[in-house]
Design a protein that fits this description.
Length: 337
């Protein structure tokens, strides 16, 4: 994940996949923020908070982030996700209610997208090397075998006992496509419990803009150019919103001139390649996070058709790097020439 640079003299906030720019010079704003940069959930997380209770809010938010990470980190044998995967086809596992809620929300979106968003793609990510970092192109037989282990319908939840069970041995879940957005939902709720005037949280391309920027009416969001440095466009965001971006430039490898990214297509078993990036603007963090994956998998036509259904707005780039956008935000976006 990319790091953020804060240039306070100009009021620019560079954030992972997208860029947030506050209109005013932050250095001239009387209410100085409390800031923090930490590594968790496999990415750099940057937090800026303004307001009388900024220190208290910061402490609460950091604890929240570490807690969620401890539940979803599939590389830690103490996490809920690790235990669920290890016991696939063997027995149900007792997990934290937060994990139950996150999985239930994942299943809701899986059903609504007809499986385009599916947290059981773990076996596919594994054979392609996106779990462990040893990238490779698996054989057709390996892909066919892994696809037999991909089905959100095989996740069985018992909310009374707080247990989760995967039906088949070898199955596994990956909450990376929803955990950051879900965490931002919790952070928004936490911020509302304190006297906070403004806040900006970036979790590796998943962003929460909270209330108004330090000065001015809008947060300005610059969408990263999928195939170059700098930005491809800028959108004005007013008030509290969640912005989630999925792209084929985050984690990928190139073999024989073909780009293979980490976002797996649960139907074909191959990395998704219909578009190069998509940004979802929503009122719910978990929803925008998951939909950015589903829309990336299904492509431009599906994304434009279903954005309205989910009450979200989108900005995307197809394989030819031509942009497409929800009509209701067209007057809020300026694309670079």
């Amino acid at each position: 994940m990319n790091k953020k640079n804060i240039v306070t003299a100009l009021g620019y906030i560079f954030i992972g996949i997208i860029v947030v720019i506050a209109f005013a010079r932050i250095s001239s704003f009387s209410n100085k923020p409390v800031t923090s940069e930490l590594y968790s959930m496999n990415t750099i997380i940057d937090i800026s908070i303004y307001g009388p209770d900024k220190e208290k809010a910061m402490n609460s938010i950091i604890k929240e982030i570490y807690k969620i990470n401890s539940l979803v980190n599939d590389f830690s044998d103490a996490s809920d996700v690790y235990k669920i995967n290890k016991n696939a086809g063997i027995k149900p596992v007792v997990v934290n209610p937060i994990t139950i809620d996150m999985i239930e929300k994942s299943l809701e979106i899986a059903k609504e997208t007809n499986g385009a968003f599916d947290i059981t793609v773990y076996p596919l990510s594994k054979i392609w090397g996106f779990k462990g970092g040893k990238y490779r192109i698996p054989s057709k037989k390996e892909i066919e075998e892994a696809l037999k282990l991909v089905s959100y319908k095989d996740i069985k939840i018992n909310p009374q006992n707080d247990t989760v069970f995967l039906k088949k041995a070898g199955e596994g879940i990956d909450l990376g496509g929803i955990a950051k957005g879900y965490t931002l939902d919790l952070i928004k709720k936490t911020l509302s419990c304190y006297s906070i005037t403004s806040a900006l949280i970036n979790m590796g391309g998943n962003i929460l803009t909270y209330k108004m920027p330090p000065h001015g009416r809008y947060w300005k969001i610059g969408i990263k150019n999928p195939r170059g440095s700098g930005i491809a466009g800028v959108i004005n965001i007013k008030g509290t919103k969640f912005i989630s971006t999925s792209g084929d430039y985050e984690r990928y490898f190139i073999k024989d001139g073909i780009r293979y990214c980490h976002i797996m297509n649960p139907f074909t078993g191959y990395p998704s390649n219909k578009i190069t990036s998509i940004t979802v603007i929503s009122d719910k963090g978990y929803l925008g996070d998951a939909l950015s994956t589903a829309f990336f998998v299904e492509g431009k036509t599906y994304a434009l058709k279903n954005a309205k259904k989910f009450h979200v707005s989108i900005i995307g780039f197809d394989r030819e790097l031509k942009h497409f956008i929800s009509p209701e935000i067209s007057d809020l976006v300026t694309f670079e020439k």
